[in-house]
Amino acid sequence: MKKFILAAVALVAMSTSSAIAQDKVLTTLYVNKEVTTHLIMPETIRLVDISTDKVVGNQVNDNIVRVKPDTVLTDGETAAVVTVIGERHIAQYKLVYSVLPGIVHTRFTIPYSDTQEYINPDVSMSVAEMSRYAIRMSNAKRTVKNIHSKKDKMKAWVNHICSAGDYFFIDFSLENKTKIPYDISEIRVKLEDKKQKKATNYQSIELIPEYMLAWNKHFKKRYRNVLVIKKLTFPEAKVLKIEVSENQISGRTIELNINYKDVLNADCFDD
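Now predict its structure.
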C-alpha cells in the first residue's frame, strides 16, 4: 500500500473516504502499464492512498498525483482504488486495467461533483478558495485611494483591502516609471513600530503570507498582486508594511504602509 502523508488529517479523512465508497458507485478510470495517469485535484492534496501494490504513484506537486500499474494485468481487472484527499474534500476512483490505449486516461481533472466534503480543523479556507477571492479582487476597480508611495521613479499603491473568513486580502500594484525592467527579489510583509525611539525597543515582526496570487517576478511597467495573511489586530503605534525589493545588490526597494484604521475599513466579499 502506497501512502503519501502530508498532514495530520489521515484518520478523519480515511474514515470519510470509506463513507464515499458506501454512498456511491465509484467512477472508473482506465489505466495501463505503459501509460501514466495524472489526477488533478481542484485544491491542495493532503494525502493519497492506493489500495494495492499493483499500482504505484507519487505526488507531482501540490494538486497533481500520478499513478501507473506496476505490472501487466488482465483486461478489465480492477487494479486498485485510489483515494485523493484535499484540504476539505475527498475523491475516490476505481482503477481498471485496459489493453486498449484509446480508452486509457492520461489526465483526469477531478470535479467537485465527484468529491465529498469533510471537516478539517486545520484548514478554514482552501487555497482554491483564496485563489477565487484574489482573482475577483484583481479584476475589480480600485477602492482604496489613500495608501500609496513613490521612490526611485517607482510608484506603489493599494487597490483593495478585504476580509474573508480568518484572512485579510491585500491587493496592491506597482508602476515602473523608468526604462529599466524590475526584477523582484522578494515581497515581505512586516508589522513594525511607526516610530523608532530606541534601537533596542524597536520591533519588527515578519508575517508569512498564506497565499500570493502572482508569482511572476519580472515586469517592465506594471505589476499587480494579491497577498493573503492571517487576520490580526495591532495598536495604532504599529503599521503593517509591504516591502518589495529588487533582485540586485543595490536594487530599488519600495514600501507600502497600512495603518490599522485602514484595516478596520476593509471590505467584505459579497458571496
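The longest helix spans residues 10-23.
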